[in-house]
Amino acid sequence: xxxxxxxxxxxxxxxxxxxxxxxxxxxxxxxxxxxxxxxxxxxxxxxxxxxxxxxxxxxxxxxxxxxxxxxxxxxxxxxxxxxxxxxxxxxxxxxxxxxxxxxxxxxxxxxxxxxxxxxxxxxxxxxxxxxxxxxxxxxxxxxxxxxxxxxxxxxxxxxxxxxxxxxxxxxxxxxxxxxxxxxxxxxxxxxxxxxxxxxxxxxxxxxxxxxxxxxxxxxxxxxxxxxxxxxxxxxxxxxxxxxxxxxxxxxxxxxxxxxxxxxxxxxxxxxxxxxxxxxxxxxxxxxxxxxxxxxxxxxxxxxxx
Length: 305
Ligand code: GLN
Hints:
Bound molecules: glutamine
Largest sheet: 5 strands, antiparallel
CATH class of the largest domain: Alpha Beta
Radius of gyration: 18 Å
C-alpha cells in the first residue's frame, strides 16, 4: 500500500483538481474584506511538496495570496521558538472551539480566555507577544524571521491592509477590547494593528509551501517539539468548529484561511497547499477541503490510518 505524497502523479492530481473545482461553486466569497470579495472565484493553485523537495503543481502559480489565518500556526511556532511553552500558553488555551473563528461570544463564554491560537481571539492575544516598538516593526521582524527560516519571500500587501482597514472589523475590535479588560493584552490598538498586518503578509503558493516545510523539517530538537504542538493544534482547531469532522475525513494537520488557502502538513512527508477562494459556512475553502480529502484518502496519508 502506498502512503506517500511522492507516489502521486500529475495526472492523478489533475483529475482530483477537476473534481474539486466542480465543487467550488458551492462556496461563497467572504464579504467583510472588500479585496477578498473581489477575488476571482475560479482562481486556483495547488502545490504538493515532499520532504525531499519533489514538487507537483497546477494552476495560477504566480498569484499573490494573503495568508490571513494561515499566519496563525506560524505565529504560534515563532513564539514557541522564542519564548517556549510556558509563556505562550499563559496567553492562550489549547482547546477546540465550537463557535465561528471570529466569535466574541466564544470569548465571553470562556471569561475572556482565548480558547486556542487558531481562532482570532487566540491569534490576537499572541500578536501582543511579537517583538518591536510599533505594529510596523513587530510585523517586519516577524516577516524577516519567516522569510529567513522558511526560505520564502513573504511581503506585506499594503493594498490588502488598506482593504482590511476600510471596513473596520467590529468583531475583532470587541475581541481585543475584551482581552484588554481581562488582562491578556495591554494595548488593543497596537495589538490589532499588528494582527491585521501579519494577516496581510502575502506570497506565491510556492512561498507558502516552503513556509509549511518549516513544520515538516524543524531544524533542531526544540523546534521538533514545537512543530508537534503546532500540528496538534492544527488538527484539533485549524478548521475552527469543523476541525473534528476533518480530523477524521482528512486526517492530517490542516489550517485554512479566509483568503481560500489551505495548508495540509503530512508529518515526515511534506505539504499540500491549495488555493481556491470560495468558502463554506465555517470559512474553509470548499475545493481545498475536497482536494485534501481526496489526496489523503487515495494516498493513505491520514495519521489515523
Ligand atoms: N484577518 C482575518 C480576520 O481577522 C483572518 C481570519 C481568517 O482567515 N479566517 O477575520
